[in-house]
Each structure stands twice: as structure tokens, then as C-alpha cells.
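Trying the structure run again after the queue cleared.
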Amino acid sequence: MLALTRKKGESIIVNNDIEISILELRGDQVKIGITAPKEVPVYRKEVYLQIQKENEAAVSLENANLLKNIL
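Done. C-alpha cells:
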């Protein structure tokens, strides 16, 4: 993991086309802004993990249905 220190108004560039900006600091919270191409999905980690879990469940169900049809 790369750890960087940034101040309000400063940014980080990732892969030449994604900009992560520090918008606001309030207590122990940091408000960030992300500018990325539309084809690059950006999720909060907890949302991303839920999507992955649901995708895995859907694949498992689909595989079970395929096996049921074969037998």
C-alpha cells in the first residue's frame, strides 16, 4: 500500500486519468472527490464487497440450475 499525505485542495493522480482530490477535512472524516472516465466504476468498499457477494451467489445459483438440468 502506498500512503501519501495530502492537504485540503491537493490531489493525487492515478493511471494518468483518475484524480482523487481532498475536498474537506472535518474531525476524523475526510471528504474526497474522484474524477474518472465514465467507464471506470468507482464504489465505496462496502458497496463493492456487497456487489461481489451478490455476483458470487448468482453464479452459484446459475451453476446449480445448470447441473439440475443436466441430471
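DSSP finds one helix and three strands in the chain. Worth checking whether this holds up in the mutant runs.
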